[in-house]
UniProtKB/TrEMBL annotation, chain A:
It holds the Pfam family PIG-S. The keyword Membrane applies. It is found in: Endoplasmic reticulum membrane. The lineage of its organism: Eukaryota, Viridiplantae, Streptophyta, Embryophyta, Tracheophyta. Its main location: endoplasmic reticulum. Residues 1-22 are annotated as: Disordered. InterPro entries: PtdIno-glycan_biosynth_class_S (IPR019540). It is a multi-pass membrane protein. Pathway: Glycolipid biosynthesis; glycosylphosphatidylinositol-anchor biosynthesis. This is GPI transamidase component PIG-S. The chain crosses the membrane at residues 49-67.
UniProtKB/TrEMBL annotation, chain B:
Pfam families: Gpi16. It comes from the Eukaryota. GO terms for biological process: attachment of GPI anchor to protein. InterPro entries: PIG-T (IPR007245). The keyword Membrane applies. GO terms for cellular component: GPI-anchor transamidase complex. Keywords: Membrane, Signal, Transmembrane, Transmembrane helix. This is Uncharacterized protein. The chain crosses the membrane at residues 553-573. Residues 1-33 form the signal peptide.
TrEMBL record, chain C:
The chain crosses the membrane at residues 15-33, 151-171, 177-199, 206-223, 260-281, 301-321, 327-349, 356-372, 400-421, 427-453. Belongs to the PIGU family. It is a multi-pass membrane protein. It comes from the Eukaryota. Pathway: Glycolipid biosynthesis; glycosylphosphatidylinositol-anchor biosynthesis. It is found in: Endoplasmic reticulum membrane. It comes from Carpinus fangiana. InterPro entries: PIG-U. GO terms for biological process: attachment of GPI anchor to protein; GPI anchor biosynthetic process. PANTHER family: GPI TRANSAMIDASE COMPONENT PIG-U, PHOSPHATIDYLINOSITOL GLYCAN ANCHOR BIOSYNTHESIS CLASS U PROTEIN. It holds the Pfam family PIG-U. Keywords: Endoplasmic reticulum, GPI-anchor biosynthesis, Membrane, Transmembrane, Transmembrane helix. This is GPI transamidase subunit PIG-U.
Length: 562, 610, 472
């Protein structure tokens, strides 16, 4: 019915009347006007409205949704303090060791005098400020006290003697009362003796801590260089010790290549030997103990003991010990639940191979020096138990036979936990020293983990940082601060607890599963996904907007002109 | 209860008394003082094949478990169970199919076998179901590490909580509250040697002595049917006071004798040389020796254990102690009239009982059993299975289908049983189309008198939990009752949905495996254990998208949508101007319009004339 | 003119009714075919939302005291469930299953046709009236205008899509009924009816919610007319031209209702709230023990908006979301559904004087972009298209579109068969037809809108210059 189609067939049959008029009119119109007539105002307005509405919807609805649905969640981390800790500037650990001077049999003023003199002597001896001893009198004794010095005046002793108690944190000093300094004395041999003793007691630990601090980042150069053999000792301890964990599973395994012995009185033996040690160690970590019997367990075939007729014994070269553990066949899987497993293997050789000894690899040692046990660094310890045929026949290993192995196991356990050798006389002191070194190393490790996490998340902008990770980072920082504060007041138990927490939380944050989600979706792929949709949509929108804007500006100008 | 079991034995030719004693007693919690470790092998020749049932059971008291002093009870497993608060565990590695027609009733009444692939169920302790479920996940993950199996793929979409299909075997497991039963299957899993190695590690003798010395991965997983089971359940030790855990490890397998006696160096089957071939002498053309009409090999050929298992049986495991209530470490139940010879390097004890001979093997001395050939086995007929089930998929195509399972009750007594079906979520069943038809499998004469029971008579009870997309598997449990000597057909339709392309398995065009249906036959007498039958697993061919397409699809689709948007937008903001208003150039357009109009005019004319 | 039309209609009536009855009989015959010719299993007909099979499963679940939404089976409305559910289990001996449901659908189709016809007549009267106002009364007389109502009704009834959807046991006839009901009510100015239809349509299948704009416009302005400004200018010119001429002829002319009647709108909104409360209460009662309304919304509307079921249909979204990377899923879900919203406002601005046509455009767009489209939706907008047979007389590419629809509806089953049943093709084959179908719908929308705008322009051209001619 369109008028501008007078000639079209559809209008043909019924196309008279207005249709004709139309066509005529059109011809005139065509003749008359070449360019389109001016557009009416309403249509212009409606077009502006349309463009505006499109733009509004897209900008108010589309873009926010796009942003919201396609951004990975990154909760913000306290990068500042994380780097701060990593650089080691957040806290410089100090170890003020409180030593109580107990002198019940000495008049107060003299003991006070003695204390002052000894303290002065100590300060002169001490070269390393971060780790120093503070002498106090018995009134200030607290649970933070590291060592108690008992002054026992005896007439017998000419020169003072010092005895370190093996099972208590106390140092007994016997001396002649005549040695007590007079109120006017400026120096006293007794005071300097006490100072020397204390200094030597903690010398080893101090050196260790000095070394650790020196090797940590952002540290001021160490006060005095350490002797190479001491460094070797530290290195050796480090390689042997297991990674620290709040719980350890001790697994005792009896391995025999034959069916017997398939019984051992391990409960009793563990109860008498291992449990006390574990109880003492419980302040550092918690321990679980499990035992198992594995008959028909033969050491790996690559190990070949040689028979020595002269001594009618079998000998195993120490070099071969590394291959001794038959990991493929022996069920030594680590225990379930968190915590490291320490394996203690008791190997009873087959009757035809008894006795089985280990020859030290260096030829200088004579074959007669028979090793039984060896330590597997960061894994456990093994012991070859040669039973007399009489014991073998019963098929049961008595608790008495188990004593030797378990003792060696316990020493190896201490080594595996990284317990310092010095002062070897007193276990409590060694434990306390271990606590301090552990605290320091935990502080360092968790700080470095934080730094690594910060660097990782900043280098990968597409990685997501979930809330739990951020939470555990915050937890780490807070407990790090607490640990540092605890160190300052010399509360080492608390410090260790906090440092442990910090380490666990830092690990949790770093190994959060949901962080490795979208790392491998490169941006050019995103372009490939977005462009086909957003390109064709955006272009006409923008063009129309520009056009309308121009028109608007133009008519504004026109208005001004008028 | 002994005589009870005896009578059952009399009634049905079933393996060994001892097995049933263990089963019953453990079920009733009346376990008497048992040795920490015992092992047992039961051999039974089947036509052309040999059924070997290995069983190893070790016990540990709760006290020793709490102190974690392990002797023969595997430390790793007990730690896992303790960690996951699991009271009772059943784990199955099965491959192959049990051939009821020629082998008859299933060993141990099917109580120690699983569906194809891996099947496990456990009773897990937990205050709430969600707590128990998280523990179940922990259990599954650690077990997958222990057995080198992909058990960790048992997630919420493969886990169901059956109501009636399983019952705890352990002592007083039923009574205790807040225990939750979880059941998971991996029908796709291929059981193989790496699953056997950890299994052997758990044995005290580690395959170096005792009956386990026969176990060889190549033979086991080459068997026509094998089922490897681990069952841990709490038991009562000695008196009423002491409790403990008992672990039963069992391997049942049916070895094809001819196949497994092939030499290792050339395992390819070849025709027998002329002289070894058994010829039918009656055929007239056999008189010239060069031709032969072969008759099939005798059903019970002559073989020794070493030939079949390819290993020596190295005596008893010395760790089983003699206070054991079954001093027999190996039992042989020869087919009727078959003679058995013992070749032993040491002294052995023998005890005869109904239809079977049991031996106490010497320690550290080889032991071998030779089964003599039995040609005339006419009288051999395998014991009838309690139920026969076969499940198939009806219909074709990748979108919809029907599931049809035929259950036959060959015995002449009615059977009550529970039918458990677990379907993956992408298989959407229409349970309202569930239909049951019962037909008689009797001869014509009696069929006249047969009255087909109504659906209500067949389906006594029904529990259905529909699946949820990507969250939960559909789980159907039916309590059915079948009249004697009838055939029950269950059918229902289902739809297969298309998954996201990341949800398909690596070889999507192979299809998806559906776990076998589990049938628990309820005992007719209360003190009996219930026996199990499982159908074969199904392979579903589901529609899959083109995995090479993601970018193409994204680009094409979004281009089309964007173009639609753009054109509508242009249309709306464009200014409409008549052709005549603009200068020449509209002409062509006009002509085209004319054409179109002409065509439409014609069409219109046609329409009018109609 | 009225008289003429009447007589002309009389002439038409028997012809029309014959065809209606014939279509009904044709449907019944198809229903009696075994298994409905497997139409119920066609992906083009029965989507997860409209399939009666799933509804039956949902009803079964409900009967066995489970939530009908337990499991990802049924996603429709609980009211429909309680309406059709009982019919699905009724079996009559010797008659095909689901006979009752099929009958319900046939009746729904017939009613749809009737409603379309009635609203078509209303539209046409309005059209003729406005032409008269524009002084173009010659046009209707000379070229007799086809009664678009009858055409549309017959197009709807005989559209293969409609027949297939009706026979193929999909609930889309009922959904269409709700939509058409609301449009009809709006056309006639019956606010309660319009409100009821709109609420029901929204409840059954979420997408008709956008129809509230055309419904309100219809109620406000009345049925479609040429742009309002024409009338002003026309009258202005007339009055301006010949003041000498007495005004009777102007006065006796019926007045054009170019005032927006708020009263009806208020009514409509009132009734809308009333009906929606009513529906919500009913739903709440029926799903009380199954997790309440929130669960219901999650299972129905949530299921529609987050495309979970990826079983193939004639839309493009199933394949898209089967292939898209999970990272972009939400983004595209929102974009594809937002696309509908983007177009609403501008279209309303441009076509506000033709609300019924606007409704048609909305339905077409939403049936192109909805998550589980079926041919039932196409059937609806194709039927409505017939209402504008006069206005869209010179639409471009109409022949091409015609062929395109035929081609797609022939090819899509073939490709589906190749992929699903034969296994010789793969998903891309079927997806290609879906793409083609989407393109066709886009072209249809664009062309129809542009044709309608052209038509308005022509009316303007016709109405104004003629006077100038008269002057000279």
């Amino acid at each position: 019915m369109s008028p501008d189609r007078g000639d079209s067939p559809s209008a043909g049959p019924k196309g008279f009347g207005p249709a004709h008029i139309d066509s005529k009119k059109i011809v005139e119109a065509v003749k008359a006007t070449r360019d389109p007539p001016p557009e009416s105002q309403e249509s212009i307005d409606s077009r502006r409205w349309i463009v505006l509405s499109f733009l509004l919807i897209v900008s108010l609805l589309g873009l926010p949704l796009w942003w919201k649905t396609t951004t990975v969640y990154r909760s913000d981390l306290p990068y500042q303090s994380m780097y701060h800790w990593d650089a080691g500037n957040a806290c410089d650990p100090v170890f003020p060791l409180q030593v109580v001077l107990e002198s019940p049999h000495v008049p107060v003023d003299q003991s006070q005098k003695l204390l002052n003199l000894a303290q002065r002597a100590l300060d002169e001896l001490n070269a390393f400020s971060a780790h120093h001893l503070r002498l106090v009198d018995s009134t200030q004794k607290s649970e933070n006290t590291v060592l108690t010095v008992q002054l026992l005046p005896t007439d017998a002793a000419a020169s003072p003697t010092a005895v370190l108690q093996p099972h208590a944190t106390s140092l007994d000093i016997a001396f002649a009362p005549s040695l007590l300094p007079s109120s006017s004395a400026t120096s006293s041999s007794l005071a300097s003796f006490i100072a020397d003793e204390l200094h030597n007691t903690f010398l080893h630990e101090q050196a260790t801590i000095a070394h650790m601090i020196a090797s940590s980042p952002g540290s001021h150069p160490s006060s005095k260089p350490l002797s190479p053999e001491f460094l070797a000792l530290l290195e050796d301890r480090k390689t042997r010790a297991m990674k620290y964990s709040p719980t350890y599973h001790l697994t005792f395994t009896l391995l025999t290549p034959t069916a017997s012995p398939a019984n051992w009185e391990i409960e009793a033996a563990v109860h008498s030997i291992i449990n006390p040690l574990v109880r003492a160690l419980s302040s550092v970590s918690t321990f679980t103990i499990d035992t198992q019997v594995q008959p028909y367990a033969i050491f790996s075939s690559s190990v070949h003991p040689v028979h020595n007729e002269a001594q009618s014994a079998w000998f195993l070269d120490q070099a071969e010990l590394g291959a001794f553990i038959n990991a493929a066949e022996w069920p030594l899987s680590p225990s379930i639940g968190e915590g490291n497993t320490i394996n203690f293997l008791l190997y009873v050789p087959a009757p035809e191979q008894t006795p089985l000894y280990i020859v030290p690899s260096d030829a200088t040692a004579d074959a007669s020096s028979q090793l039984h046990s060896w330590l597997l660094p960061q894994w456990g310890s093994a012991y070859i138990l040669n039973l007399p045929p009489s014991a073998l026949s019963t098929g049961t290993i008595s608790a008495k036979d188990l004593e030797a192995p378990l003792l060696s196991f316990s020493t190896h356990l201490l080594a595996l936990l990284g317990l310092p050798e010095e002062p070897h006389k007193s276990l409590p002191l060694r434990l306390a020293s271990l606590r301090r070194t552990l605290t320091l190393s935990l502080l360092h490790s968790s700080a470095s983990t934080l730094g690594a996490l910060a660097r990782l998340t900043q280098s990968l902008p597409s990685i997501s940082i979930p809330k739990p990770a951020a939470a555990s980072v915050a937890h780490t920082l807070s407990s790090l601060d607490q640990a540092c504060a605890a160190l300052k007041i010399g509360d080492f138990k608390e410090a260790l607890v906090k440092a442990r927490e910090a380490d666990i939380e830092a690990e949790r944050a770093f190994f959060d599963k949901s962080m490795v989600g979208q790392v491998y979706f490169p941006d050019e792929h995103k372009v490939a996904v977005y462009l086909p949709l957003l390109g064709p949509v955006a272009v006409p929108l923008i063009l129309a907007f520009v056009k309308e804007a121009k028109a608007g500006v133009a008519c504004l100008k026109a208005l001004k002109g008028v | 209860m002994r005589c009870g079991s005896g009578s059952r034995l009399g009634a049905t030719m079933l393996p060994s008394v001892a097995l049933f004693l263990t089963l019953f007693s453990s079920l009733l919690g009346l376990t008497t003082a048992r040795s920490p470790y015992s092992e047992h092998l039961h051999l039974q020749p089947l036509p052309h094949s040999l059924l070997a049932q290995f069983e190893f059971s070790s016990t540990a008291s709760d006290t020793s478990l709490e102190e974690q002093n392990f002797r023969f009870f595997p430390r790793s497993l007990s730690q896992i169970l303790h960690h996951a608060h699991t009271k009772e565990l059943h784990l199955r590695f099965t491959s192959g199919r049990w051939d009821e027609e020629s082998w008859g009733r299933r060993p141990r009444n099917g109580a120690r076998e699983g569906g194809t692939g891996i099947e496990m169920w456990a009773w897990v302790d937990g205050e709430t179901e969600s707590v128990a479920y998280t523990r179940w996940l922990a259990l599954v993950n650690s077990l997958s590490g222990l057995f080198c199996a992909s058990l960790n793929y048992i997630d919420s979409t493969r886990t169901t909580m059956p109501i009636a299909a399983f019952e705890p075997e352990g002592y007083s497991v039923n009574g205790t509250h807040n225990l939750h039963l979880f059941h998971g299957t991996l029908p796709r899993e291929v059981v193989c040697t790496e699953n056997l190695t950890p299994f052997m590690k758990m044995l005290p003798c580690k395959g170096k002595a005792g009956v386990s010395s026969l176990l060889d991965g190549h033979k086991i997983f080459d068997a026509a049917w094998q089922s490897m089971a681990i069952d841990v359940r709490p038991v009562q030790l000695g008196g009423s006071s002491a409790r403990g855990l008992q672990m039963e490890q069992s391997i049942d397998m049916v070895l094809d004798i001819e196949r497994s006696m092939r030499p290792k160096d050339d395992p390819i089957p070849r025709p027998y040389p002329q002289d070894q071939m058994l010829c039918d002498k009656d055929k007239w053309y056999n008189q010239y020796g060069d031709s032969c009409y072969p008759v099939e090999q005798p059903p019970f050929p002559d073989f020794t254990l070493e030939q079949v298992f390819g290993r020596k049986l190295k005596g008893t495991c010395p760790l089983i102690d003699d206070a054991n209530d079954k001093p027999t470490s190996i039992c042989v139940a020869p087919a009727g009239g078959q003679t058995v010879e013992i070749k032993s390097a040491g002294a052995y004890k023998e005890t005869k009982s109904s239809g079977q001979r049991c031996f106490r093997m010497p320690i550290d001395a080889d032991f071998d059993v030779e089964f003599m050939e039995l040609i005339t086995a006419a009288d051999y007929s395998p014991p009838l299975p309690k139920l026969r089930v076969e499940r198939t998929i009806s219909g074709y195509g990748q979108q919809r289908g029907g599931l049809k399972s035929v259950i036959v009750n060959p015995l002449d007594e009615p059977v009550d049983f529970v039918y458990l079906e677990t379907l993956p979520w992408f298989m959407k069943p229409f349970i309202h189309t569930l239909q049951t038809t019962v037909s008689s499998s009797l001869s014509q004469g009696e069929v006249q008198t047969f009255r087909a029971p109504t659906r209500e008579e067949v389906i006594n009870d029904m529990h259905y939990q529909p699946g949820i997309d990507r969250q939960r598997a559909a789980h159907l449990e039916l309590k059915l009752r079948m009249p004697p000597q009838t055939k029950l057909t269950l059918t229902y339709d289902f739809e297969k949905s298309v998954l996201r392309y990341t949800e398909y398995p690596p070889d999507a065009n192979r299809g998806f495996d559906v776990a076998p249906a589990v049938i628990r036959i309820l005992p007719s007498k209360p003190d009996e254990p219930s026996s199990y039958v499982r159908s074969t697993s199904l392979l579903i061919y589901a529609a899959s998208p083109d995995f090479s397409m993601p970018y193409n699809v994204i680009i094409l689709t979004s281009t089309v949508i964007a173009l639609g948007f753009g054109s509508v937008f242009n249309l709306l903001v464009r200014r409409l101007v008549g052709a005549h208003e603009t200068g020449p150039g509209g002409g062509i357009k006009e002509r085209i319009r004319g054409r179109i109009a002409a065509i439409r005019a014609k069409l219109g004319a046609k329409k009018k004339t109609q | 003119m009225e008289a003429k039309e009447q007589s002309w209609k009389k002439k038409k009536q028997p012809w029309f009714w014959h065809w209606v009855i014939a279509s009904a009989i044709f449907r019944l015959i198809l229903i009696y075919f075994p298994k409905n010719l497997n139409l119920a299993s066609r992906p083009e007909v029965s989507t997860p939302l409209t399939s009666l099979r799933r509804l039956a499963e949902g009803y079964w679940l409900k009967q066995s005291s489970m939530s009908p939404y337990a499991g990802s089976m049924y996603h429709g409305s609980p009211l429909l469930l309680s309406l059709l559910g009982p019919l699905t289990v009724q079996r009559i001996e010797g008659l095909p299953d689901h006979l009752l449901c099929s009958l319900v659908f046939v009746i729904a189709d017939i009613i749809n046709a009737m409603l379309i016809r009635a609203s078509g007549q209303k539209l046409q009267m309005a059209y003729g009236q406005s032409l008269k106002l524009l002084g173009l009364f010659e046009l209707p007389e000379k070229s007799e205008i086809i009664t678009s109502g009858d055409i549309a009704a017959l197009v709807y009834l005989w559209n293969p899509f409609t027949i297939v959807a009706c026979v193929g046991l999909s609930t889309s006839p009922v959904e269409n009924l709700a939509i058409i009901l609301s449009l009809y009510g709006a056309c006639k100015g019956l606010a309660p009816l319009a409100a009821f239809g709109w609420v029901m349509a929204t409840h059954l299948s979420l997408y008709p919610v956008i129809l509230i704009i055309p419904v309100i416009l219809l109620l406000g302005y009345g049925p479609d007319t040429p742009p309002r400004k024409l009338f002003m200018r026309r009258r202005y010119i007339e009055v301006g031209d010949n003041p000498s001429k007495d005004r009777e002829d102007l006065m006796d002319r019926p007045e054009v209702p170019h005032v927006f009647s708020w009263r009806l709108i208020i009514h409509f909104l009132f009734w809308t709230s009333l009906w929606s409360v009513y529906v919500l209460v009913l739903c709440g009662v029926s799903v009380k023990q199954y997790g309440g309304l929130w669960e219901l919304f999650k299972r129905t509307y949530g299921f529609m908006l987050t495309v979970q079921d990826l079983s193939p249909n004639i839309g493009v979204l199933w394949y898209f979301f089967a292939e898209v990377f999970d990272f972009f899923r939400n983004f595209f879900l929102i974009v594809f559904h937002g696309n509908i919203l983007f177009m609403i406002l501008p279209l309303a601005i441009r076509l506000k004087h033709r609300p019924y046509f606007l409704a048609f455009v909305y339905i077409a767009i939403s049936s192109m972009l909805k998550s589980y489209p079926s041919v039932g939706d196409s059937a609806l907008y194709l039927g409505l298209l017939g209402l504008f047979v006069n206005e869209l007389a010179d639409m471009q590419f109409s022949f091409f579109l015609f062929c395109g629809y035929i081609g797609v509806s022939l090819l899509s089953p073939v490709m589906h068969n190749l992929w699903i049943w034969r296994g010789t093709g793969n998903a891309n084959f079927y997806f290609a037809t879906a793409m083609a179908y989407a393109c066709l719908q886009i072209i249809l929308v664009v062309e129809s809108v542009s044709a309608m705008l052209n038509h308005d322009r022509k009316l303007r051209k016709l109405s104004l210059p003629e006077l100038q001619v008269g002057k000279t």
